[in-house]
Structures are given as C-alpha cells and as structure tokens.
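Whiteboard transcription, Tuesday session. T.W. wrote the structure tokens on the left side:
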C-alpha cells in the first residue's frame, strides 16, 4: 500500500490546501457555473448513490488509482483499503444499519485549479451530516463532519484524488452553532441583519495563525477578498509599542529615561510635569494628557493630572513618544516599523502612511451605521496611535510574534505583560497592551481600535497559545464582538466579555 510517511503526506497536503485557499480566494465558483454543477453531480454520484445505497462501483469509478483518504478518527487509507473497509463495514451483507449522508445546506464551496490557464482540478469544501436507521428503528441523526476533496480532471473525466474528513461531532446542534462562522451564506445573512458590511476574523491556535476568514462586501456587488486591506485605528498602538520595546531590548532606548531629552512639545515646555514623562508612562497611558488635545483651547497640549499617578487613555502620549523616537534615531516611525517588524515578519500589506503601494481594489471602505461611506484617512506622515493599514493575515502574524516575545528580552517581555496600572476590576494596562485577569494565573492581552467606520479588536491567550483578531468597517461593528469572542474562545471568551460588561 502507498501509505508510507503518512504524516508527512498529510502535512504536505494540508499545507497545499491552505496555499490553494489563499491563492484562489477571489475565485470561488458560483452555483450557476458549469464547474460547480459538474462537481456537485460527481458528489451526488459518490454519496447519494455510492454511499447511501452502497453502490461500490461508484467509488471504484470515481476514485483515482492513487486515491488517499485522511480521517481524523480512523487514520489513512489508500483506494484498496478504503474499498475493503467499506465492503466489510457499513456496506457488509447483510446490512445491520442503513447509513445516509446529506450535505449541510449552503456549506459547499468549490474553487477551480489552473495550470498555465488550463483547468486541471478543483477543491470542494463543505460540511456533511450522517444519519442511520435499522429495520426496527426510524432514522436518527448521527455525526457530522467537515470535508475537503481534491478533484482532478484526468483524460476528460473528473476523479477524486484526495479526501479529508475531519472535525467529527456527534451532536447535530453543534452544526447550527458552528455554522454561523463556517457557513458563508449564514454568516453574511447575519452580518446584513446587523448592518455590518465587512468582517474579518483571524484565528490563532497553538501560537500560529491557522485561519483567516473574511465575509461581506467591500462595496455593493464586490466580495471582500481574503487579503482585504483595513484601517485598524488604534491597533496601531501595539505596533508602536513593540517597535519601542525592541529598541529597549537592544539597549538603544530606556523605558524610564525622561523623554524631554529628545523631544519637548512647545505647549508644555515650561510645565514642571514635563520631566516626568517616560516611555513606560506613555505605553501604560499614564501621561496625564487627554486622548487628543482640545480644539476649544487653541489646540494646545496640557496635563490633566500628574504623570504616573492614574490611568487616562491617550493618543497624544503615543504621538509624543513617536517624536522622541524620530529625533533620537533620525528615522521616521514608518521606517523603524518597517525595519523592526514589517520586513522581518514579511508583512507586505502593512504600512503607516497612505501611498501608491495601497491596492485600492482591496481596501475596506468605512461606513456609518446608516450605510454612508466615509472618506478614507490618508496620512502622509505616520501616526503612532492611529490609522495603520493592514490585513488580517499580516496583523495575525504580528500577534503570533508578540505572543512568542520575538525581538524582546525576557525582562522587557515580562514588563510588557505586567500590570502597570489598573483600568477597572480585573483589567489593567501593561506596556502597549491591555491585560484581562482571567484567574488561575490565566490572562489575555488585548487592544481595541475605534474611529469613524472602524471597529477592531484582538485578544491573545498566551497560556493556551490562542488568539482572535476581529476587524469591521462600520461605526458600531463592536456589537457583533461578543458572539465571535465566545464562539472562538469559549469560557475564556465569556470571562473577557463579563469583565468588559461589569
């Protein structure tokens, strides 16, 4: 049998499937297309006739000679072993049980595969449910599972070459629960009900970005692609924080050195609190500055309290730090970010300034809650606090790096996730990151972003190496956070929601 090195084969195949999904995110087949109808007809032959009636010939005819089947509960089979198990198992004579397979409505996705413009195959993904009955007992719902099929066009005939069956569950109710974010049609219906034009989700598992999901439209009739570009508002601040902490770790910057040595804003040049400002105080939002300076007071910057004595979220503080960094290193923040984060992590779709590199066809237009579009913010100079342009994949990659402490000394990494100041019960600010205390030494690192037409958030659970990224492009996109957070992070997600809503 051709199943040597099976772990390597499975890993290679899964990586291949992922790459295919990334590369062909634009090209999911419409239900009306000839390819979609062809693959669905083959699916019907394979299951409605082959599986449901135990017509073994359908499997013999539709499988390639080198067919392989990967099952999360029952190892790996080649064609010969699969047919043997089928004949001696559920299709054994006499049949004790009758089994029926049914596709979950709306779950099927089909993507074409091309080589030099010539169609050679297709990926089919979906969720199916299984039922069983006996002569004495009526049909009952059994398990359901996700599946991925690789179909190849061989000698003008479609053949199934690889089949993956995974995420088997025994309760049918879980299909409905999981379906909201696994079923594109159901998810987009839910988004329309909530008036959310576009949603991006990144799922981190085992410290790696394992899934990227983007739903909705960039504009009417234009589906949002996998690599949609988003303005993520204040999710810029963690990037600025990590740039700074990299410099601290390399001995080029000091957390507790007064910033006036490099930059002094003329508005506070004579204020005695000036010399109290440090990087630690900025990153933990204890500067005493308002979020943004008041336009009612000649647009002047001032202290609302003594730095280091209490918490007050401040974009002005981060901008103050940016100017100090730029004076010290004679580089702009976008140059520092590119050198220390974007380039090493290959975040090719991330930037702090608006320029000709941006693919406008992928940009998520921002909307108010009545569906009116905002003009995009087009920064010509980098902001340390706002308006980072990025994708779910890029930002998820950044967060995985943060979780591992890449580029940070052990001491600085511990400082970053330590409780610098309390913001509410069980919630704190560290250095650039909010911290939720979840009990039993478990915690979450987080940050949110909010601007006109922007609501974004991420959550990292370093103990379990999990994470979640949520991007939306509407004023009140935050209203769908709870469902997503609890769905993907379970009990820890519920604890985070409870802390926020106390």
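and on the right, the sequence the group agreed on:
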């Amino acid at each position: 049998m051709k199943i040597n090195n099976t772990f390597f084969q499975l890993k290679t195949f899964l990586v291949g499937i992922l790459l295919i999904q990334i590369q062909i995110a634009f090209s999911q087949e419409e239900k009306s297309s000839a390819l979609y109808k062809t693959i669905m007809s083959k699916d019907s032959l394979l299951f409605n006739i082959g599986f449901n009636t135990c017509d073994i010939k359908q499997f013999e005819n539709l499988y390639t000679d080198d067919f392989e089947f990967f099952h999360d509960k029952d190892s790996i089979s080649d064609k010969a072993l699969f047919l043997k198990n089928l004949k001696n198992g559920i299709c054994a004579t006499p049949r004790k049980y009758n089994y029926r397979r049914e596709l979950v409505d709306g779950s099927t996705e089909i993507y074409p595969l091309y080589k030099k413009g010539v169609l050679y195959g297709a990926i089919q993904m979906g969720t199916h449910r299984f039922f069983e009955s006996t002569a004495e007992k009526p049909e009952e719902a059994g398990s359901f599972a996700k599946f991925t099929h690789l179909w190849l066009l061989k000698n003008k005939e479609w053949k199934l070459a690889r089949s993956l069956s995974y995420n088997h569950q025994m309760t049918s109710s879980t299909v409905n629960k999981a379906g909201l974010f696994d079923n594109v049609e159901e998810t987009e219906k839910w988004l329309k009900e909530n008036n959310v034009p576009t949603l991006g989700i990144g799922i981190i598992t085992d410290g790696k970005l394992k899934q990227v999901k983007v739903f909705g439209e960039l504009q009417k009739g234009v589906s949002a692609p996998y690599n949609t570009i988003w303005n993520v508002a204040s999710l810029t601040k963690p990037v600025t924080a990590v740039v700074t902490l990299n410099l601290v770790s390399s001995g080029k910057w000091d957390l507790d050195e007064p910033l006036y040595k490099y930059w002094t804003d003329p508005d506070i040049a004579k204020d005695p609190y000036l010399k109290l400002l440090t990087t630690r105080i900025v990153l933990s939002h204890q500067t005493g500055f308002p979020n943004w300076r008041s336009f009612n007071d000649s647009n002047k910057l001032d202290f609302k309290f003594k730095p280091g004595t209490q918490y007050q979220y401040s974009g002005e503080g981060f901008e103050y730090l940016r100017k100090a960094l730029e004076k010290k290193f004679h580089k702009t923040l976008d140059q520092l970010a590119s050198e220390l984060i974007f380039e090493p992590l290959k975040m090719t779709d991330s930037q702090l300034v608006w320029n000709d590199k941006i693919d406008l066809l992928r940009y998520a237009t921002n909307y108010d809650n009545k569906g009116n579009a905002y003009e995009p913010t087009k920064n010509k100079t980098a902001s340390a606090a706002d308006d980072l342009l990025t994708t779910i994949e890029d930002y998820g990659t950044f967060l995985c790096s943060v979780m591992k402490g890449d580029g940070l000394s052990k001491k600085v990494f511990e400082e970053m996730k330590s409780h610098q100041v309390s913001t509410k019960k069980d919630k704190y600010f560290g250095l650039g990151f909010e911290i939720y205390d979840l009990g039993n030494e478990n915690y979450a690192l987080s940050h949110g972003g909010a601007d006109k037409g922007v609501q974004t958030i991420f959550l990292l659970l370093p103990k379990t190496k999990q994470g979640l990224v949520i991007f939306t492009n509407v004023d009140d996109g935050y209203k769908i956070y709870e469902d997503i957070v609890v769905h993907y992070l379970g009990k820890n997600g519920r604890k985070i929601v409870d802390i926020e809503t106390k």
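Someone added at the bottom: The mean pLDDT is 88.
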